Amino acid sequence: MNLQLFIFNFQANIIFSKFYITFAMDRMIFFKPMLEYWYIIILVFFLLYSLGVLAVVGVWYFTPSFDVKQESVQHYISFSILIPIRNESKNLPSLWSSLQALDYPKNCFEIFFIDDHSEDDSLSFLKQLKQENVKLLFNKGEGKKAAITTALSVAKGDYIVQTDADCCVDALWLQTINAFIQKERQDREVHLIAAPVLISDKPTFLNHFQSIDFVGLQMVTLGMMGLKCPTMLNGANLIYNKNSWQLLQEKLLISGQETPSGDDTFLLYAVKKEWGTRGIFYLKSLGALVRTQAVESVSDFWQQRIRWASKTKYVKDADTIVAGIVVAGLHFSILCLMLMTLIDSSFGCALLLSFLGKLLLDGWLFYPYARYFKKKNLLYYLPFFTFISYFYVLGVIIFSSFASFKWKSRNYTLK
């Protein structure tokens, strides 16, 4: 009886295996004509991505490094530093220490700390600050955008300088910005400046992952601005003309009020729409560097990236849309190639070549920025970052379209 049962199971397995193999082969034969077109699609996205990387890297090497020590400064511009605060008690001491070390006349800049209804000891720390040019404001609304608007209504500086409460600035920060503005506005108006931001070093894998992600974002920011088609910047180190902002507000050109993210990016789009790209700059300088803190958990990292990407559905800038399609298209096509390889291992060679090709391009893209800011050690993590990016980039794009997210103890639901 046991022998008969064994023979029956053996025959059943053979029949099932033949059926599965025949089914799989039929599917592959059906998809074969489509796969030829898929290879073409991957090649097209690879070509576009390669041209983009080539252009961005070229801009980096053609953009001179700005050194304030080699510039002659005629006068000191007045600055208003805006720092929105929400539940940042653990970061405020290091931020304040770096602000106290600024090498700039204290009568030429003011610092606004705008409390966004903090629930920790942030207010207690801020109320202890006794310095004539430091002012504590309370957000008249809710969220970072409202906090910035609250401060802009009373700021007196000719230029606004934005940073975040989890950052530290260089002692030459304002000196460098001041000299750069004076140099550039000799022949054109300076409306907006993006300046470098890097993640502070910590010996954790998540910190390294975020650091290399930031390097890529900053490199693209500089490159796209140099190509006269700016698409992004970072509000942790942002400078803009106060009069320019007021004019944009009066003309209602600053959009994106539907999303809690993007105060910096939508300002960029407004400046671009009103004056073109002539008055938009990237300040490539060690003295202008701002260091920010990495988020401490994978969950917080995911929530942060979804918040950043949540503004995507409100973006109407053509340059940003085209760049987004190229990046998303390349990641999606290679991810599909991974799935094909699981069905048929003969696609493994094409997958390997695709992965190595993108890894080479990413290394080429990230290396100049990492070398300049002494972050070359991050490149050791590039293979893992490149592999994870196929899932990470598409996941963020998909989830940011409909998922809710949490930021600073507040829950947001996208409409």
Notes on the protein architecture:
By secondary structure, this protein is of the alpha/beta class. It folds into two domains: 36-65 and 310-415, no CATH class; 67-196 and 237-294, Spore Coat Polysaccharide Biosynthesis Protein SpsA, Chain A (Alpha-Beta Complex), CATH 3.90.550. 53% of the residues lie in helices and 12% in strands. The protein contains twelve helices and twelve strands. It has helices spanning 2-62, 92-100, 122-126, 144-152, 173-184, 205-226, 242-250, 263-275, 298-309, 318-343, 348-372, 382-399, and strands at residues 79-85, 109-115, 134-138, 159-162, 167-169, 192-194, 197-199, 238-241, 280-282, 290-292, 405-407, 410-412. The strands form three sheets. The protein has a seven-stranded mixed β-sheet with strand order 3-2-1-4-8-6-9. Helix 1 (2-62) crosses helix 6 (205-226). The longest helix is centred in the N-terminal third of the chain and has 61 residues, at 2-62. It starts with a helix and ends with a strand.
CATH architecture title of the largest domain: Alpha-Beta Complex
Separation of the first and last Cα atoms: 65 Å
Please tell me the overall pLDDT: 86
Total domains: 2
- Count all strands and give the number: 12
Q: Please state the overall shape, judged from the principal axes of the Cα atoms.
A: globular
Structural class: alpha/beta
- Low-confidence parts lasting 5 or more residues at pLDDT below 50? 1-30
Mind telling me the CATH superfamily name of the largest domain? Spore Coat Polysaccharide Biosynthesis Protein SpsA, Chain A
CATH class of the largest domain: Alpha Beta
What composes the largest sheet? Answer: 7 strands, mixed
Rg calculated over all Cα atoms: 25 Å
Helix content: 40-55%
CATH topology of the largest domain: Spore Coat Polysaccharide Biosynthesis Protein SpsA, Chain A
Proportion of strand residues: 5-15%
Which sequence of SSEs, written as H and E, runs from N to C?
Answer: HEHEHEHEEHEEHEHHEEHHHHEE
How many helices? 12
Q: How is the largest sheet built, in terms of strand order?
A: 3-2-1-4-8-6-9
